[in-house]
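stage 2 :: seqdesign
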C-alpha cells in the first residue's frame, strides 16, 4: 500500500493511501457500486442549506447499525482494516459528471461532541474530480485511494468532467485506541 501525508504547520493533516484494498476486494466493491442494480437515494444538495448541487447516496451504516446488504460483503472489512472504533456513519456518494468542475460548499460531515473523530473517503472510480480542503489541498479521485483526515477539517467535493459520475465511500468514525 503506497501512502503519503500532507502537513500543515508541522501537523499531519491528511493521510493518503493508494491501493487501500487488495485488488479482489476492491474489484467486488467497485462492481457493486457501479452496477445498474445499486440502489441510490436522491439528495437535493451536497451541504445542507447551501443550495449546492444534488447528488445520490447509499447508506451502508447509520444509527449504530448496518443498513445495506453490502455492509457484510465489503464495508465491515474496510472498517476493520482502517482500525475504526466507534462508527458514526458510512455512505456511498454518487455525483454526476458536469460540464465544468464545480466545488460544493466546504463542510464537515459530522459534529462529534468533543470526540476525536476521523473522516475517510475511499474513491471508487478514477476521474478528474476529487476533494478540496480548506487549506487549498486537492486530492484527486483515483480508484482505490483513501484519504483520511480529522473530522474538524472542512472539505468539499469537486465534480468531474471526464466521466459520467464520481463515486466515493464516505466514512465517519473514531479510531481504536492502541
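stage 2 :: out
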Amino acid at each position: 500500500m503506497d501512502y503519503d501525508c500532507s502537513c500543515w504547520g508541522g501537523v499531519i493533516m491528511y493521510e493518503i493511501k493508494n491501493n487501500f484494498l487488495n485488488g479482489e476486494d476492491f474489484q467486488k466493491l467497485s462492481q457493486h457500486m457501479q452496477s445498474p442494480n445499486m440502489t441510490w437515494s436522491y439528495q437535493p444538495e451536497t451541504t445542507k442549506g447551501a443550495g449546492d448541487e444534488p447528488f445520490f447516496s447509499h447508506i451502508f451504516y447509520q444509527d449504530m447499525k448496518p443498513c445495506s446488504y453490502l455492509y457484510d460483503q465489503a464495508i465491515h472489512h474496510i472498517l476493520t482494516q482502517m482500525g475504526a472504533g466507534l462508527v458514526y456513519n458510512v455512505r456511498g456518494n454518487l455525483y454526476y459528471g458536469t460540464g465544468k468542475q464545480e466545488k460544493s460548499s466546504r463542510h464537515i460531515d459530522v459534529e462529534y461532541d468533543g470526540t476525536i473523530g476521523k473522516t475517510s473517503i475511499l474513491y471508487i472510480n478514477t476521474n478528474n474530480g476529487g476533494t478540496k480542503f480548506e487549506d487549498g489541498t486537492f486530492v484527486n479521485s483515483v480508484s482505490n485511494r483513501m484519504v483520511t483526515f480529522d473530522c474538524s477539517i472542512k472539505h468539499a467535493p469537486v465534480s468531474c468532467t471526464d466521466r459520467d459520475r464520481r463515486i466515493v465511500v464516505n466514512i465517519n468514525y473514531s479510531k481504536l485506541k492502541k
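stage 3 :: structure notes
- The two ends are 21 Å apart (CA to CA).
- The CA atoms of residues 9 and 165 lie 35 Å apart.
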